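User: Second chain of the day. Same drill as before.
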Amino acid sequence: MWVAPALLLVTGGLLAVTVIVSQHAALQGAAMLWYLAAVMAGAGLLLLGATAITGKAKGNWRQLLIYSLGGGAFRAVPNAMVYMSIVHVGAGFVSIAFAFPLLLTYLMALFFGMERFAPFRALGVAVALAGGLFLVFSKVEGIATESGGVGWVILASLSPIIVAGGNLYRTKFWPPGAPPMLLAALMLIFAALLVATFAVFIDGGVGIAGLWQNQVVLILTGVNIAVFALQYVAFFQLQHVAGPVYLSQIGSVAAAVGVPVAVLFLGEALPQGFAFALLLIVAGAAVFQIAGHRRSS
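Assistant: Same format as last time:
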């Protein structure tokens, strides 16, 4: 009974940690796409090594590789959008943006027949979305005078659409019997290759050198590799046991954790009306959880 909620808290909390650590790397001047590619590759190889040692690196490799290529694309694109915009909009806003896949995943799951309509679950999603939208509009208003500021807000806010699509893709096409850790490893490796391709054109080929020339960035890269590895083990396990809509609640947890941490440790200013919006997000997630528990009972 408590496995899914525990995995939800762990995954959402670790997601917030990755955002905070990445914000520190951005402030150190790291080329963020190369940084993201290095973190994903390191975490993927770490997990792949763990699956090999434990004897879990097995299955229909054709299915595994095709599935992981698609999963990597659904993970690489939104992460690249977020990492390019994080230095402009802040870790707090990025954490808030992760709350949106809850509504989008639920609506997509209804459309594709993967979820049945439940009024109270829909109410919870709507309440959480209202809180998230309130914060987005507050943030847009707050940085409207900055050059290109609104564009970065829009970029960060659009990434959850692709995240929601990935949530459904991973559930619908999960290879039969495939272990979650192996899928997480392969997805991260493919995502790293795709992000590195973006990095060549956007950050330039020389940007990767800064990852080891700056010792602080090097340490932050190592920390995020470990956090990513732990996060995606919990992430895939949560998706396996609870499904895509339940999984998408990690965004609400990340928002609740990431925004206060960004304020306390990064000195970011809270958007206007943050307390009210956070209350809506938490209340919506709580209604969603209660409704889901009653339905399963």
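The CA atoms of residues 128 and 189 lie 33 Å apart.

User: Great, on to the next one.
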